[in-house]
Design a protein that fits this description.
CATH architecture of the largest domain in chain A: 2-Layer Sandwich
CATH class of the largest domain in chain A: Alpha Beta
Largest interface: A-B, 48 and 48 residues
Keywords (chains A, B): Aminoacyl-tRNA synthetase, ATP-binding, Cytoplasm, Ligase, Nucleotide-binding, Protein biosynthesis
CATH topology of the largest domain in chain A: BirA Bifunctional Protein, domain 2
Organism (chains A, B): Glaciihabitans arcticus
EC number (chains A, B): 6.1.1.15
Number of strands of chain A: 31
Domain Aminoacyl-transfer RNA synthetases class-II family profile (chains A, B): 40-487
Largest sheet of chain A: 9 strands, mixed
Oligomer: homodimer
Strand content of chain A: 25-35%
CATH superfamily of the largest domain in chain A: Bira Bifunctional Protein, Domain 2
Distance between the termini of chain A: 13 Å
Family (chains A, B): Belongs to the class-II aminoacyl-tRNA synthetase family. ProS type 1 subfamily.
Chain lengths: 587, 587
């Protein structure tokens, strides 16, 4: 096949679009692959559609290789199933809702767990029907607060979403692994670097969950990884807690007047005045942070988190730790209503032996960072204005209502699997595999009869790949200052032939070259524009990013053309016949 | 390729779905091709998706054959372009509207004229860029008042919509013809009978417009056709008006007391008492019907239509004739406000020589059916209670404000092209080609520079095919009491192989047959279900509708299998090798 550039619906732009923050957005618009329609909503031009189809087909092939079957759901779905799962409410402002002419509620589905569950319930009833993996490639909608970076975070985007159905946990493990393996094959075929990180399962609940992150500076996620192979997103990172140590013989805690020390810095300074030989740092202090939680019914409550003074609370980790509550810092009103919380001097202990928060009308939960293990010794607030307590021993002088993972992760923290210290990196989520477990099947009543004729609830997995985002990530990873450089298997065309010159022989040779390449099974883009200069044609070729370019120029008269590798920039002169052989053998 | 029925996500149903009114809906649900999600909204199962893809690919091939290029727009679009074209309001309740979290208005696009226009405006600026034909295959949304008949009229459905761009009228004619020809090829390849009818261009405005109707009893449209080749939808039918005849020497009109004759029937009876020798029929009376029009700004006005008494007003034709007004019968309030309109006795004339409607506060327009031509003589109302006028002559005693085509079309009416009397038939619209002209380009400012460097407004065409509706129409046209019978080129599989029996040899032969057919390029559905009886398997095969079935049964031990033509019911015994040759040669 071949397409003439003179006929192709494309127009390259010299200038970057004003709203483009990242290279992929800039280049995909400039090269005529996509066009913005509304914030986070794009139209696909012929070049963009070609690349997208190739990505989709690679995904299809790898999913069908293990038996997943394609179906297609509407984007417009009724409220009821999402009401049954609780997600109609949980999604908050993040989805598009609408009503039909009769006032019935609908949504534009952001994911389809509910209706896949109902479909399987509708068709299947026996363990013999399982395992089952279904998928669709479909346009999804999310009303993002801040759509950004072109296709990287849109409000309409294309996803491949799969769902697996099993009746045993072992079955789910296998289905999960099949998807995970397929994802590895897909990203490998796409030439996309990826890291599989342990993930928080977010809204979905469920057991095992991993994200495929593509490391990139434009990524939205921070993840941690160790040289020894550990990887997790920050929300899923777990702290290595020190072993408990005996506290027999440790001196009793002592309260000191420490006026004007409302911060960790001032406290450390004062502490080093009190005991000039200890060399205290922030890590020796126990910081107590008050958080306000709002549960799904809208009830607000407070919790105090104790953590080493050299760490802050990571609010994303806190959201996960306290899920399904929403989390924010306590405000002035919270403090006013709880006079027992003495701002700047909060501790798990007081000179009067009062339990934290006892002075307030409601008992406030007190939870600890894992580092505050039994036998560790701390300087912390005394719950009295201007006073701190020194030598307070965890497990002896105070206890907690639980351990939580909310502290910031920092470079050098130890990976929980013993693989050494971690570093922090930026990544873009390109895939996600979840073990949903029985949540949706319970909510929607999906049960099958097992071998013993007993009704058992089905266990599910959910697996997503962002098709349009992958296109952006590929563009982000494959470009230079001149334009895009597509990997061979997703390039919009196999070869870009340029007729460079005005002589008739140039066009004659180019035409026969194009015909020869077509016969060799190549899909050719032919820049046949008669009145465009070679320089402009070269620039357009560099911008469009077909990886293999052939220039038919002055030497055409001698049957010689030039093979130009867009990625390396290398150019080589070849006879037409040799070129067809060389390029054709790639098919 | 092959697919094992034991693994395929499908479940056939014995019973018809309760909401299914038509065969296609009933069978597509029972055979496991689609499943209802909400009124007029369906999910596609693997079998349905396969058929749909084949239809889409036939459409793609025929459009690309003349150079149309595929793009893809979002379904979610901002209000502004539709506001500029006036369609945001015009669509009324017929579309889904929604707001994003910032309160900005969006719609789920029912068609995409506006944004295609803007896209071309964005990219192109010269006559050299034209002609251009772009298309997309995309999910569309319409908030139908009465979604019905499964896929025949859904609220979410898939359409191929194309748009052509030219800068001369001749260019538009050519683009229109290219689409029209492609549509003929598409429907021919799909084996779908079609009639091309002249159409009203509805909301769109514009010049030439034709519909492709598939004649079917479940069709929603009535169309007329003559044996001589004329075809039009009822809205587009034009009446053959009698020539004007001289009225010199005709007697003067005379008013008669005709109490208690408020209807045409009673009037005809009384008229035949007044003149016992004339043999009057309803066709001799002039009926005057009062209609209320509401313009796009919401202003209501009345119009009186005069037409032969043997015809009623066809409200669909009236909608077109009075477009863009909405039309309904005048109500009691309208009559009360206009005492000059004497119900049952309305005429274009009164004994006092009063002009129709003169007694009312506003002048009311009076329009005529084309049959009321100059010199025709009528019995009609005298605008006085209980009085009619006889011998009233059109052109002598009354005139009109215009001619309108609103009368019912009936069997035997003459086709306007002289091809004889028409019959009426039911059809389903499967395609539509429109000359939009410059309406959208004007509204949205799409101009290009012509050969003389002058800015000219682009002229456009719009062309639609209902992909999912075509699937339903195909199912409607290809079934029997046992199930579906797909045409070869859209069947979900090429061959359906049934292992009929429990003997090991049956499965051995079936497996080798499937492998052989795969090698011969066939896409095989293999009913390998071990515990299902041959009878059930045969019934499922008939229901699923793959046109070529192979039964591997008792004779398998002798290497003999049975080829079963689903359409004719013929069965033939063949050796495995002969069967592979026979069936494989179809590829």
């Amino acid at each position: 096949m071949s397409t003439r550039l003179s006929q192709l619906f494309v127009r390259t732009l010299r200038d970057d679009p004003v709203d483009a923050e990242v290279a992929s957005h800039r280049l995909l618009v400039r090269a005529g692959y996509i066009r913005r329609q509304a914030p986070g909503v794009f139209a696909w031009l012929p070049l963009g559609l070609r690349v997208r189809r190739k990505i989709e087909n690679i995904i299809r092939e790898e999913l069908e290789a293990f038996g997943a079957q394609e179906v297609h759901f509407p984007a417009l779905l009724p409220r009821e199933p999402y009401e049954q799962s609780g997600r109609w409410t949980k999604y908050g402002d993040g989805i598009f809702r609408l009503q039909d002419r009769k006032g019935a509620d609908y949504l534009l589905a952001p994911t389809h767990e509910e209706v896949f569950t109902l479909l399987v319930k509708d068709l299947y009833s026996s363990y013999k029907d399982l395992p089952l993996s279904l998928y669709q490639i479909q346009d999804k909608y999310r009303d993002e607060a801040r759509p950004r970076a072109g296709l990287l975070r849109g409000r309409e985007f294309t996803m491949k979403d799969s769902y697996s159905f099993d009746y045993t946990d072992a079955g789910l493990d296998l289905s999960y692994q099949q998807h995970r393996d397929a994802y590895e094959r897909i990203f490998t075929r796409l030439g996309l670097e990826y890291v599989i990180v342990k993930a928080d399962s977010g809204l979905m609940g469920g057991a095992r969950s991993e994200e495929f992150l593509h490391p990139t500076l434009v990524g939205e996620d921070t993840f941690v990884r160790s040289a020894g192979g550990y990887a997790a997103n920050v929300e899923a990172f777990t702290t290595v807690a020190p072993d408990a140590v005996p506290f027999d013989g440790l001196p009793a805690a002592e309260v000191h007047d420490t006026p004007d020390t409302p911060t960790i810095d001032t406290l450390v300074a004062v502490a080093n005045e009190v005991h000039t030989d200890r060399g205290y740092t922030a890590a020796d202090t126990l910081k107590n942070v008050v958080l306000a939680l709002t549960d799904p019914e809208g009830n607000r409550s407070l919790v105090v988190v104790g953590l080493p003074g050299d760490r802050g609370v990571d609010m994303k980790r806190a959201e996960v730790a306290f899920s399904p509550n929403e989390v924010e810092a306590a405000n002035e009103g919270d403090f006013a209503r709880n006079p027992g919380l003495v701002k700047g001097y909060i501790g798990p202990w007081s000179a009067a032996g009062a339990v934290l928060g006892e002075a307030s009308s409601t008992k406030i939960r007190y939870v600890l960072d894992p580092r505050v293990s039994e036998g560790t010794v701390w300087i912390t607030g005394a719950n009295e204005q201007g006073k701190h307590v020194f030598g307070l021993v965890a497990g002896r002088d105070f206890v907690s209502d639980g351990i939580v993972e909310v502290a910031e992760v920092t470079v050098g923290d130890l990976a929980p699997d013993g693989s050494g210290p971690v570093e922090l990196a930026r990544g873009m989520e390109i895939g996600h595999v979840f073990q949903l477990g029985r949540f949706f099947a319970e909510a929607l009543g999906l049960k099958v009869l097992d071998e013993n004729g007993k009704l058992v609830t089905v266990t599910m997995g959910s697996y997503g790949i962002g098709v349009t985002r992958i296109m952006a990530v590929l563009a982000e990873a494959n470009n230079d200052e001149k334009g895009l450089i597509w990997p061979d298997n997703v390039a919009p065309f196999d070869v870009h032939v340029i007729a460079a010159g005005k002589d008739e022989v140039v066009y004659e040779v180019a035409e026969s070259l194009v015909a020869g390449l077509e016969n060799a099974g190549q899909d050719v883009l032919f820049d046949d524009r008669p009145k465009v200069s070679p320089g402009v044609k070269f620039g357009d070729a560099e911008l469009l990013g077909v990886p293999t370019i052939v220039i038919v120029g002055r030497s055409a008269v001698d049957g010689i053309v030039e093979l130009w590798d867009r990625r390396t920039g290398e150019r080589e002169q070849l006879s037409v016949a040799d070129l067809i052989t060389r390029v054709g053998s790639k098919a």
